[in-house]
C-alpha cells in the first residue's frame, strides 16, 4: 500500500474508528465523529462496511432525545482474558470484544504464593472459565496479566529483587504464553487499574489521573494525556516505596521507612492491640466502619500518610484527578477526609484549589477490568480484530 | 500437658475465650494411635486450618469434633464446660456441624430435599414445601452461592456447588463451629475458588471454621492459624502467614515440635 494513497487513507480511517470503539467500549456515530475528527459521512460509510465485514455491530439508541446509532465491536470476534495477581488475592475475568464481562472469578491466595503454582492454576482457571461460558479455547485472542510488583513492560519480566518471594526475574509473559498459546502482556496491577478508571471509571473525561491502591500493598498508576506511564523498567508510580521516614523499619524492597511500611495492611494490623484475635484487612474495614476507636485511628493516620505522599506526587505530575482504590478505601471518608486535608495542606497552592480526590468507581474489579482493556488493545494491534493495527 | 509452642515464643493471637477446646485427647484404632494427647482451641470468627501428612490424624480429629469418634482419653470442652460428643446429633446440638469429604448428599433428591432430609418442616404427614424452599434460598443467599435451581437433583450440580449445598445443610441449625474435611479435594480450580470464598464468608459471619486439608496452599489462603499434626501429635501451631517451606518442614518432621511456631 502506498502511503498517502486513497486506499491507505481509508485503511488508516478504519483503524482509527475500530481503535476508538475498542477503547471506549461503545459510542454513537456522532460521538465517533467527535473523537476521530472524521466527517459523519465517512464514519457512516466505514461503520456500514465494517458491520458487513463482521467487525463492528450497531444498534439503535437515543441520545439527547434523538435517534442515534450505537456502535460496538462485534461480540463474536473473540474473547480476551484479564488476570490480576494481588498480594493476597487473584481475580480473573473473561470478556468478549465489546468489553462485556462474561465471567469473573476471585479467590484468596496464601500470603506467600508462588509464581509457578499460581500461574499454572490461573491458566487452568482461564480454560475452565472459557468452557463455562460455552466457548472453545481457540476463541481466546489475548491475555493481559497484572502483578503487584514492577514489571518490564517490554519483556513482561518481574524486575524487582525480593519484593515478592519466588517471583524475582520470573518471565510472566513467557510462562502464560506457553500455557495458553496466545499473546500475553504483563503490567503492574496499579497501572492496569489506572487505565480502567480512566476509560470506564471515576476518571472518565479527565485527561490525566493518578490512581493509588491501598490494600495489602500500596501502589500507584499514572495515566497522562491518555497514555499509561510505565517508565524505563516498569517502576513508574511505585509510591508504596517512596521514603517517608528514613530511619523507619526496613521494607521488603530493601529501603527504609517506605510508605507501605506505614499504611500497608501488615503494618496497620500490627498497630492494633493484641488480644483482638488474628485480624484481616477486611476485619479492620468492618471494625472501623462499625465505630471501633482504635481501628478508626489507624485508618485516620493512614489517610494522613497517604496525603503526604500523594501531595509530593501531585506537585510533580499535577494530575487532573486522584482516584483512591484498594480494600482500605471501603471505609470511605474515614480515610479520604484526612487524606484530602493533608494533601490540600501540602500541595502548591493554586487559584484552582487542590486536586479532587475521589474513591474508585470500579472497586476491586479495577485491576482486572484494566487487564481486559489492555488485552483487547493488544489484540487490536496484533491485527486479530479484522483491521490492520494502528 | 505439653504446650506445642515453646516457652518464650509468643503463641498466635486468638480472640476471647475458645468456643470449643480439646484437652489431652487421644484416640486408638486397634494398635494404631491416631491421636495422641491433642490440645486444640477453636475460636469464633477464625479459620483454624488443620494440616498434616497422610495418617497424621486430621480426619480423626474432624471425627472427634463431629461426634463420630469418641476419644479414649482427654476432654472436649464447649464454652469451658466438659461435654460428651457421642453422636453427630449430640455435636450438632452443641453447635458443631461437620461436612465430611464424601458430603453425604443424595444424588437423586433435589437441593431442598437434601437440605431438610431427616428434619423436614411441616405438620403431620404434610410437608411445608414453601417454607423449606424459602429457608433454602435464605441460607444459599447468605453464602452468596450460585445455584441454578433448588429443585434440580444434586447430581446435576458441579463439585463446588455440591460442596456449597453440603455446607448450607450444615448451616441450617445455626452452628457456631463448622468443620470442613478436605473440602477442596478433587475439585477444579474454579470450584476450589468458590469453596475458599465460601470459607472467607463463613468466617466473616462470625463462625468458627475448622478446615482440614493437606493442600497447604489452599489453607494458607484463608487460615488465621494453622495446626500441624504429625503422627497423631500436635507438631506446632503457626500463623496463617507462615511460609510454605516452614509449614512443609513441620508437616514432614524436618523441624522439632514447636520449634517453628510463632
TrEMBL record, chain B:
Keyword hit for Plastid: no
UniProtKB keywords: ATP-binding, Nucleotide-binding
InterPro entries: AAA+_ATPase, ABC_carbohydrate_import_ATPase, ABC_transporter-like_ATP-bd, ABC_transporter-like_CS, P-loop_NTPase
Organism phylogeny: Bacteria, Bacillati, Actinomycetota, Actinomycetes, Micrococcales
Domain of life assignment: Bacteria
Protein name as catalogued: Sugar ABC transporter ATP-binding protein
MF-aspect GO terms: ATP binding
Ranges where the ABC transporter domain occurs: 20-256
One Pfam family here: ABC_tran
Coiled-coil parts of chain: none
Family matches, as PANTHER family: CARBOHYDRATE TRANSPORT ATP-BINDING PROTEIN MG119-RELATED (PTHR43790), SUGAR ABC TRANSPORTER ATP-BINDING PROTEIN (PTHR43790:SF8)
Amino acid at each position: 500500500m502506498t502511503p498517502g494513497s486513497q486506499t491507505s487513507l481509508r485503511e488508516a480511517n478504519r483503524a482509527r474508528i475500530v481503535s476508538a470503539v475498542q477503547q471506549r467500549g461503545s459510542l454513537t456515530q456522532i460521538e465517533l465523529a467527535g473523537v476521530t475528527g472524521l466527517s459523519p459521512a465517512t464514519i457512516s460509510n466505514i461503520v456500514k462496511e465494517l458491520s458487513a465485514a463482521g467487525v463492528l455491530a450497531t444498534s439503535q439508541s437515543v441520545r439527547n432525545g434523538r435517534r442515534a446509532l450505537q456502535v460496538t465491536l462485534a461480540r463474536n470476534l473473540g474473547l480476551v482474558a484479564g488476570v490480576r495477581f494481588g498480594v493476597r488475592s487473584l481475580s480473573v475475568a473473561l470478556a468478549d470484544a465489546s468489553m462485556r464481562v462474561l465471567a469473573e472469578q476471585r479467590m484468596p491466595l496464601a500470603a506467600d504464593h508462588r509464581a509457578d503454582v499460581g500461574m499454572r492454576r490461573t491458566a487452568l482457571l482461564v480454560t475452565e472459565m472459557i468452557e463455562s461460558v460455552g466457548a472453545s479455547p481457540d476463541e481466546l485472542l489475548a491475555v493481559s496479566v497484572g502483578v503487584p510488583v514492577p514489571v518490564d513492560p517490554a519483556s513482561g519480566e518481574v524486575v524487582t529483587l525480593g519484593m515478592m518471594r519466588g517471583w524475582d526475574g520470573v518471565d510472566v509473559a513467557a510462562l502464560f504464553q506457553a500455557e495458553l498459546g496466545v499473546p500475553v502482556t504483563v503490567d503492574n496491577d496499579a497501572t492496569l487499574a489506572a487505565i480502567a478508571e480512566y476509560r470506564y471509571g471515576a476518571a472518565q473525561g479527565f485527561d490525566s489521573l493518578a490512581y493509588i491502591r491501598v490494600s495489602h500493598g500500596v501502589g500507584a498508576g499514572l495515566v497522562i494525556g491518555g497514555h499509561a506511564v510505565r517508565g524505563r523498567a516498569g517502576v513508574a508510580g511505585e509510591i508504596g516505596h517512596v521514603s517517608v521516614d528514613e530511619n523507619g523499619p526496613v521494607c521488603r524492597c530493601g529501603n527504609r521507612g517506605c510508605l507501605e511500611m506505614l499504611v500497608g495492611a501488615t503494618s496497620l494490623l500490627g498497630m492494633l492491640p493484641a488480644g483482638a484475635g488474628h485480624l484481616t484487612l477486611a476485619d479492620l474495614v468492618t471494625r472501623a466502619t462499625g465505630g471501633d476507636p482504635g481501628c478508626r485511628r489507624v485508618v485516620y493516620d493512614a489517610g494522613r500518610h497517604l496525603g503526604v505522599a500523594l501531595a509530593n506526587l501531585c506537585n510533580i505530575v499535577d494530575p487532573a484527578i486522584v482516584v483512591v482504590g484498594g480494600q482500605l478505601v471501603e471505609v470511605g471518608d474515614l480515610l479520604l477526609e484526612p487524606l484530602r486535608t493533608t494533601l490540600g495542606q501540602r500541595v502548591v497552592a493554586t487559584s484552582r484549589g487542590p486536586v479532587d480526590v475521589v474513591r474508585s468507581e470500579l472497586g476491586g474489579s479495577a485491576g482486572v477490568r484494566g487487564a481486559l482493556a489492555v488485552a483487547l488493545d493488544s489484540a487490536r494491534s496484533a491485527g486479530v480484530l479484522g483491521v490492520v493495527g494502528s | 500437658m505439653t504446650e506445642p509452642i515453646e516457652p518464650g515464643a509468643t503463641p498466635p493471637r486468638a480472640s476471647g475465650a475458645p468456643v470449643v477446646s480439646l484437652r489431652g485427647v487421644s484416640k486408638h484404632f486397634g494398635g494404631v494411635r491416631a491421636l495422641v494427647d491433642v490440645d486444640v482451641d477453636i475460636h469464633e470468627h477464625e479459620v483454624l486450618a488443620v494440616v498434616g501428612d497422610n495418617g497424621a490424624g486430621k480426619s480423626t480429629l474432624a471425627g472427634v469434633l463431629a461426634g463420630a469418634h469418641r476419644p479414649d482419653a482427654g476432654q472436649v470442652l464447649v464454652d469451658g464446660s466438659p461435654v460428651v460428643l457421642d453422636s453427630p446429633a449430640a455435636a450438632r446440638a452443641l453447635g458443631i456441624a461437620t461436612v465430611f469429604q464424601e458430603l453425604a448428599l443424595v444424588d437423586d433428591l433435589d437441593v431442598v430435599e437434601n437440605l431438610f432430609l431427616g428434619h423436614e418442616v411441616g405438620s403431620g404427614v404434610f410437608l411445608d414445601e414453601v417454607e423449606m424452599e424459602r429457608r433454602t434460598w435464605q441460607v444459599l443467599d447468605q453464602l452468596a452461592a450460585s445455584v441454578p435451581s433448588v429443585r434440580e437433583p444434586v447430581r446435576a450440580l458441579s463439585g463446588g456447588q455440591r460442596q456449597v449445598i453440603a455446607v448450607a445443610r450444615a448451616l441450617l441449625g445455626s452452628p457456631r463451629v463448622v468443620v470442613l474435611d478436605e473440602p477442596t479435594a478433587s475439585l477444579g480450580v474454579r470450584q476450589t475458588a468458590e469453596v475458599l470464598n465460601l470459607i472467607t464468608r463463613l468466617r466473616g459471619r462470625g463462625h468458627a471454621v475448622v478446615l482440614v486439608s493437606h493442600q497447604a496452599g489452599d489453607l494458607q489462603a484463608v487460615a488465621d492459624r494453622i495446626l500441624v499434626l504429625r503422627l497423631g501429635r500436635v507438631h506446632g501451631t503457626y500463623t496463617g502467614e507462615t511460609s510454605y517451606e516452614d509449614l512443609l518442614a513441620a508437616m514432614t518432621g524436618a523441624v522439632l515440635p514447636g520449634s517453628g511456631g510463632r
